[in-house]
Amino acid sequence: MNVLVTGGSGFIGANLVRLLLVERPGWRVVNLDALTYAGNAENLAELDGHARYRFVRGDICNGELVADVLETERIDAVLHLAAESHVDRSILSPPVFIETNVRGTQVLLEAARELGVRRFVHVSTDEVYGSLGPSGLFTEETPLDPSSPYSASKASSDLLALAYARTFELPVVVTRCSNNYGPYQFPEKLIPLAIANALRDLPLPVYGDGLHVRDWIHVEDHCRGLLAALEKGESGQVYNLGASSERHNLDVVKQVLRLVGKPESLIQHVADRPGHDRRYAIDSTKARTVLGWAPRHRFEEALAATVRWYVERRPWWERIISGEYLAYYEKQYGAG
Ligand code: NAD
Ligand code: TYD
Question: d(Cα 61, Cα 271) in Å, to the nearest integer?
């Protein structure tokens, strides 16, 4: 089996490529990634020369390139992760989110249709459902109600993917996962940002009152869910993935500070994110029942392991926290 992973040099993609090579020794994995600010060739550097792995640098919006990769690599299945993924950046500058997440997804779907790909897993997010009140969970039937340009672009791409299943019978499966954490996450997202700042005695910015709730899942559990969706998902179906680990943002940053051994006085409340979703929480009964998938990691232990990873891999994130990232940080938090 030849599998194309788009966005394989990003956070989830790098974890997924590794997992696929280990768990499916008969598979060949091709990674198509444009290496935007979020893509990092270093994330998979140890795979250089691996017999069952190939990296192609390229943009998913480039139809000719995508078709060429699908054809020459005789791709059977696509796991589509390439995206602009950060809500705050989508608020600062929406256009690239439409270009990559909407148009790029359509280009990929079209090429997959033309070349007869046998399975297309479209990797999406619970953010397409919008915000929950204090109770209840997102199910696959929850209406789409995205709040940010990021989540609106993901909802658009979900609908395109499902339309390709219905209209063209492209065997598409859509997954919607909750907030991930773990190794290789770019330090603009809450958990790695909190760890990297705590380790440098810098303030930990918490938006608004910090009582927003996210439902955390370890990236490896997400990746196992994607593999299950690829192998067992039914075409045209959506599967929610989550680990039932709801936490307030404030609790998460306090836990990070405890693990790093730094004082809570580093917490700094800053202006709230516009349109900030109050609560996400996932009902993943369908994935657990139909795909036979279940998360393995518990939040507290896995967060501690994640903090250890960032402590041990300090050069990895210190190299990232420079250049373009510095300019973004200044724009996002400078006035805060
Ligand atoms: P990321 O930002 O870490 O990685 C995205 C990758 O896509 C990068 O390697 C980047 O170079 C690549 N990319 C961006 N634009 C591209 C383009 N035009 N062509 C080719 N490659 C391009 O993101 P992530 O957190 O790993 O998320 C991966 C996917 O999972 C996204 O689709 C995201 O919406 C989805 N998702 C993420 C989370 C989460 O908590 N991080 C949760 C649910 C779903
Ligand atoms: P984030 O990691 O950006 O993921 P998402 O917005 O996709 O859920 O943010 C997680 C939560 O943490 C969200 O409620 C916003 C909040 N947050 C902060 O309070 N401070 C920060 O510096 C960041 C990046 C996020």
Answer: 35
- Alpha carbon 5 to its chain centroid, in Å, reads 13
Query: pTM, whole model, 2 decimals?
Result: 0.97
Q: Which parts of the chain register pLDDT below 50?
A: 336
Q: How far is CA 213 from the centre of its chain?
A: 18
* Distance of CA 101 from the midpoint of ligand 1 (Å): 9
Q: Which pLDDT score is estimated for 336?
A: 45
Identify the three-state secondary structure at position 79.
strand
* 249-268 as b/e: b if 16+ CB within 10 A: bbebbbbbbebbebeeebbe
- CA triplet 57, 62, 67: central angle to 5 degrees? 90
- What does the alpha-carbon distance between residue 22 and residue 179 come to, in Å, rounded to a whole number? 24
Return phi, psi of residue 214, to 5°.
-120, 150
Tokens standing for residue 14: 């790098």
Other C-beta atoms lying within 10 Å of the C-beta of residue 153: 26
CB 210 within 8 A of CB 294: no
Supply 255's token pair: 């836990």
46 catalytically annotated: no
Exactly one of 127, 158, 220, 221 is catalytic; which is it?
Answer: 127
pLDDT, position 335: 53
Instruction: Tell me the C-alpha distance between 309 and 303, whole Å.
Output: 10
For residue 144, give the DSSP letter.
P
Delineate the domains of the chain, giving CATH numbers in brackets: 2-181+217-241 (3.40.50.720), 190-213+247-278+301-333 (3.90.25.10)
pLDDT tens digits, one per residue of 74-99 = 999 999 999 999 999 999 999 999 99
Q: Which ligand is nearest to the CA of 185?
A: 1
Q: Which of 33, 59, 126, 220 is catalytic?
A: 126
- Whole-angstrom distance, CA of residue 116 vs CA of residue 103: 20
Please tell me the distance from the alpha carbon of residue 289 to that of residue 194, in angstroms, as a whole number. 35
In a 3-state reduction of DSSP, which class is residue 30?
Answer: strand
